[in-house]
Amino acid sequence: MLGNEKISAGQMGLLMFFAISASAVTVIPGITGKYAQNDLWLSPIWASIIGYVTVYLAYRLHQLYPKQSIIQYSQTILGSFLGKVTSLFFIFFYLHLTGLIVRGYAEFVVGNFLTRTPISVVMISMVMVAALAVRGGVEVLGRTAQLFFFIFLIPVALMPTLLGSMKFQYLFPILEHGLKPTFLGAASPQAWFSEIFIMAFFLPFVSNQEKSMRAGMWSVFGTMMLLTIINVFILLVMGRQAGDFLYPVMVAFRYISVADFFQNLDSVVMGIWIIGMFQKISVFYYASVIGTSQLLGLRDYRPLVLPFGILVVIMGFWSVPDQLHVSAFDTFAFPFYGPLVQTVFPILLLILAFWQKRGQASHAERTALSDDTES
User: Fold this and answer.
1) Which terminus of the chain, N or C, has less C-beta within 10 A?
2) Inter-CA distances, 338 with 70, 229, 329, 331, 335, Å
3) Inter-axis angle of helices 119-136 and 138-152, nearest 10
4) What angle separates helix 70-78 from helix 345-374, to the nearest 10 degrees?
């Protein structure tokens, strides 16, 4: 593998920010609005808690097994056979998730803009571009994240232009039905926040390790703030009707009109969102490829990039037949599927790792004591 590649903790944090937020900004507001209604702005705050926990888990496991990804230390913790089975499961999980992300991206583009374009063309073109970035290595991914970060935030800067269409009475009454609807609205976004566990594949490449956990925490906080701001913006423009739309963000941006000159800025937002999705797909694509190369003991992961690109497209077609099933997966399946694999299972790994380390320390003490007695 390209072992000399390094990224900074800040670059890793930006990659994690894109890995969570790029798809969440379009999908989450509509799902959250169905449950939380005019309190949908609170749900990302509760959902982010699982993100902070997941960052801690990934960092602590990395501290115990530095210079190793989860594919490698799973075999150390669980043994050769169980470790390889676990590693295969993680690789399949991220390959499957990458296919779902690509399919969700393509369904959005075809459904809203390129209505006459075959969905296969949209999927294959994005995977080909992402493959170039993945083949370039982790440093390329880190630098593109730095380049695109402020561009990705441009839609947030456009929100004040909608002040004329905002109705602040839509915020009230706050917590009319208590906290329960906001917790239900947090069920889906917490699955997106659990995706930050993918940093376990990138931590071995971070040059300033002491800042890794802080960078991960900032990624979670930044995503939480972004989703909260967008949810407030959508609520002020659309009210409780936000939950009636599949992609309320794009609907809300169609209201923008500056001096009757700048209008229909949803296409601009769409172009910026595609940049974010490129980063997200590249991160998950890279994790799948680098994890497989580590499992197989390959010195260079790049020969796997093209075959995995084909698998990602196939997985995107195989996983779900249409947009309705994509939405159903995001709403009902992923809130359990994502955290179970990316938060609950790492908790078990960390407990086993602590138990293993303690057993090794006790054995070393007994051996040292026995040597002292014999001497």
Assistant:
1) C
2) 16, 24, 11, 12, 6
3) 120
4) 50
